[in-house]
Amino acid sequence: MDIDLYKQQIENDSFNLQGVVKFVVELMLGLCAPARDPTIRSILSQSDPVEVFREVFGALDLMRLDLVNYQLRSLRPALLANSVQYEQDKFRNLLASNPAGLDKTKQWLGETERRMKAGNQPVSPSTLLNSAFIRLIQEEVDPIPETIAMDLSRFVTVARELSAVVFSAATILVLQTGVGPTVQHDSFANKVRVTVYQLCSDELISHPRDILPNISEKLVDIVRETITSRPLRDEECQNIRGMLSGLQSPSNPVYCLLWERAKQFFTSLCSGVVGPVPAGFSVCATDLQGVASKYTHLVSYNRGVFGPFYADIISEITSSQQASSSTS
Prior knowledge:
328 residues
């Protein structure tokens, strides 16, 4: 591109904008990703110079974004290989200037160990860490451990998604058990799963049980549509609403049973044991496995970064317990 020539052409009213645009578009087509070709070719259909420049700069922004994404994908293996060590070094530097920088983490692990002993559960470094991480998706841990602070929002997201999966499975089981054989098939279960899970995934909902008052009638309609052999009687509709209302209780036995199974499934995966999806989750298997994948990735990376610090804390807890036992 000869800028001086273009200046002369503009000054003499002989500048060929369409010719320059065509040259620029052909150059961009040679540099961009194939997926951007339709967007870039559409520039040629513009006749307004202002729109032409707007479209060109917009396409250049997309090309720049594509290049950045490509570079990140290329660097991803190297970034992942070094990120663990980098974060460990940064955290050690933080501890050097703040010796009390692990107090909340010690409190979190110490409380977990006390709960496990109170429940007569075997305590080992692995089981202690697994139980501690499960607490992050089961309850609001306060104070927030220093080693979890950066990942807390991700654990909250996993907790919300897991609650949605468990609640969907519980709703399906309650309806299929209460209504009977006429709804014992996957098409009905899938309708319920999609209806419940989509609403439960709303970030504004603190817990899935909060949606029951709004979704009960929709679920009754799904049952009514499924039972085509006869109309659903009013007393049957009322019974369905009554069964669903039981899920609003935090201690609902169906929900609690499925939650425990999901916890055991997550714990097994973190221990390296890949087993089948728990009973009761057959229709929601894909959803459960998706959430489990997010959880295990979070836990694995966190343990990779903070594993040495966890090992020191657990050793300290174990030593203090042995000292207390020998004294008593």
